[in-house]
Design brief:
Layout lengths: L7 E4 L9 H19 L3 H19 L3 H7 L3 H4 L9 H24 L5 H17 L7 H8 L4 E6 L3 H11 L7 E4 H4 L6 H11 L6 E5 L2 H9 L4 E5 L14 E3 L3 H13 L1
Parallel strand pairs: 1-2, 1-4, 2-3, 4-5, 5-6
Helix pairs in contact: 1-2, 1-6, 2-5, 5-6
């Protein structure tokens, strides 16, 4: 029996199309270098400290912890998200964000013997400015999207805060490639919840069997999409081992490697 033809390609955003973790690390280190210049702190040590302090505050003092988990907002993303929107959860986070950002840096500085609230605020703002100014796309992304976008319905499905993810997409110049863009916060549920994938496919007017999910997360992208019958491409840029029980239709190190496979799938359907 021939497989259903591929009509749609669904891409994850962070660490699939855009460089998220390394961009966040670069912003942290940029701010930490300012602390090194001001008071001689080791940038790498302060970086480790602020990752810990922001995570602790985010997970233990956030006024909308359940919502943040539900839509997949990370502690470092919360350091620069505007939390725009009318939901009560977003209003709570928006009001808490200034103190969260300042205290993340202040607590990290305190761990290194420096208690300076003004410096903490300066570092918080430096992190935001650097992160907001740098939206790095992997080198293979645009060539692959150019080859694919005229042949398939193209969609982007990402967890996170809507304003933040859409700012990344706009900053990276990726929006024109996609027919549909769905951010978890738009509907209040995140990958790997099957409802997230179904909501996007409904917008596309595509059945799961005719769609391929391409993403870097074994649990959120690959297992989540496979659970509703989508084909899956695991974009394993970091070369991490596959976890037991995780199956995909194709594993690649970059998007260039999957273009020919997608084309070949179309040829045999």
């Amino acid at each position: 029996m021939r497989e259903t033809a591929i009509d749609a390609l669904v891409f994850d955003l962070d660490d699939t199309l855009v460089v998220e973790k390394e961009s966040a690390a670069a912003a942290f280190l940029h701010a930490c270098q300012l602390a090194a210049e001001r008071c001689g702190l080791d940038p790498a040590a302060l970086h480790s400290a602020v990752k810990e302090t922001c995570s602790n505050l985010w997970h233990h003092q956030s006024p909308a912890r359940a919502y943040a988990v539900e839509v997949g907002i990370s502690s470092w993303e919360a350091l620069w998200s505007r939390f725009e929107g009318e939901r009560e959860d977003l209003a709570l986070l928006r009001n808490w964000a200034p103190s969260y950002r300042r205290d993340s840096w202040r607590n990290a500085l305190r761990l290194h013997g420096v208690d300076d609230v003004d410096l903490a605020a300066e570092l918080a703002n430096a992190f935001i400015a650097h992160r907001r100014a740098h939206h790095v796309v992997y080198d293979d992304v645009r060539p692959a999207l150019e080859r694919l976008c005229g042949r398939y319905r193209m969609a982007l499905l990402t967890n996170g805060a809507s304003d933040l993810q859409r700012e990344k997409i706009a900053g990276a110049g990726l929006a024109p490639y996609f027919h549909e863009i769905l951010v978890a916060a738009d509907i209040g549920i995140a990958k790997p919840d099957p409802r997230t994938f179904r909501a996007l496919l409904t917008r596309l007017g595509i059945e799961p069997q005719a769609a391929v999910m391409l993403g870097d997360s074994q649990s959120r992208d690959i297992q989540g999409a496979a659970a509703i019958g989508m084909r899956t491409v695991w974009v394993n840029r970091a070369g991490v081992p596959r976890r037991d029980g995780v199956a995909c239709d194709l594993e690649v190190a970059n998007l260039t490697e999957c273009v020919e496979w997608i084309t070949a799938q179309a040829a045999v359907c």
